[in-house]
Amino acid sequence: MNSQSNKIRVGGILENRDLVMVSILSAPNIPGTAGKILSLLGDFNINVEFITESCNIEDTADIVFCFKSADRDTVLQILPELTRQINPRAEKWQDHIAIISVYGPHFREKPSIAGRMCSALGAADINILGISTSISTVSCVISESQMELAKQALESAFNLPE
Amino acid sequence: MASKILIIDDDIDLVEVLRITLEIEGFEVIDAQEGERGYRLVVEERPDLIILDVMMTTTDEGFAVAQRIRANPEIAHTKIIMLTAVSQELGFKYEKDDDLTPVDEFIEKPILPDRLIHIIKKHLNLAQ
Question: Full-prediction pTM beyond 0.90?
Answer without folding.
Answer: no
